Amino acid sequence: MVTKAKILIAEDENIIAIDISRTLQKLGYIVLGSSRTGKEIIKKSEALKPDLVLMDIILHEEMTGIEAAESIMKGLDIPVVYLTALADDETLHHAKITEPFGYVLKPFDERTLHSAIEIALYKHKISRQLKERTLELEEERNKSNELLHNIFPAEIVKELRENGFIKPREFSNVTLLFTDFQGFTSMASKMPPQILVNELNDIFKSFDTILESHQLEKLKTMGDSYMVAGGLPKENSDHAKRIIDAALEMQSFLSNRNLTSEYKWEMRSGAHSGNVVAGVVGLKKFTYDVWGNTVNIANLMERYSMPGMLTVTEATYNLVKENYHFKFKEKVDVIGNGEINTYFVLGAK
Q: Among 25, 47, 124, 249, which is least packed by CB within 10 angstroms?
């Protein structure tokens, strides 16, 4: 069943308004009433929510039909068709600026009026559908952006959107941090799967918050291992300090959590500073990753570290030795790099 359109009439002459009303009813429309002034037609439009307003340009009192139409179309999203005897170029131009959904000159015939109304209703329907679709697309775009920002650093998302791909890039001086949990395999075998996932999720979410506060990039998690980068993709000169501050804060968080948690987690962490190549690999489930000798050494520092401690190489030590207390740990023989001095970070000076 086709729903009849509800129409309001704005006309300063009562006799003409009655004639228009009769014509509309004859054509099968529902007439909600008429008004002589712009303010009144706006109020009635707000209250009655018509499907369309037939608007005379000349109304009683100061507000013109053009001003009233602009308010109704913009504020209430109701289509307006002008029905007027005024046809001079200036008036037509002024009326068209408000972008009405139709324009009918008096005297009018039923067919012309009927066509103008139906076209206006159809145009408004299509316009509303386009707006709704645009909003849906905008929501989908926002969801896509949010997902991309959760996967990649902001600079990488920008490059991906602008170019459609990520160009591999070498960074001459960054600091990488690796962490993992002492005795994870043994703990995991004794914990129900859901509890294990909940524990890791709670810890890693807190780690994520710590990284965000220090403007660092989480690269990935691998089981209980957590990998962090400082100084990429946005380069900075204090990447080593940011990494150490974050690592110490992560250790402090775990210590405080262990005071009340049923499960006690002990974290080892290691860091190294140097050059890396960074980029995106894969076609599906791709990630932003880094490669190079620095990655291997940073990972090695984590494995050589101890629970509750952060171990760094001499390269990192030299960048921040004025900021922290250190304790020499040992010389580590790294294949392809010879012996490397390593240090425990004891805390900030």
A: 47
Phi/psi region, residue 28 (left: phi>0; alpha: psi -120 to 50; beta: rest), is left
pLDDT in tens, 11-50: 988 898 999 999 999 999 999 999 999 999 999 999 999 9
Task: Tell me the Cα Rg of the chain.
Answer: 35
Count of alpha carbons within 13 angstroms of residue 43, beta-carbon side: 7
CB 181, CB 187: distance < 8 Å: yes
User: Which are the contacts of 167, defined by CB distance < 8 A and separation ≥ 6?
Assistant: 159, 279
Q: What tens digit of pLDDT does each residue of 290-309 get?
A: 889 999 999 999 999 999 99
CA distance 199 to 195: 6
| Distance set, CA 49 to CA 33, 43, 94 (Å) | 12, 10, 26
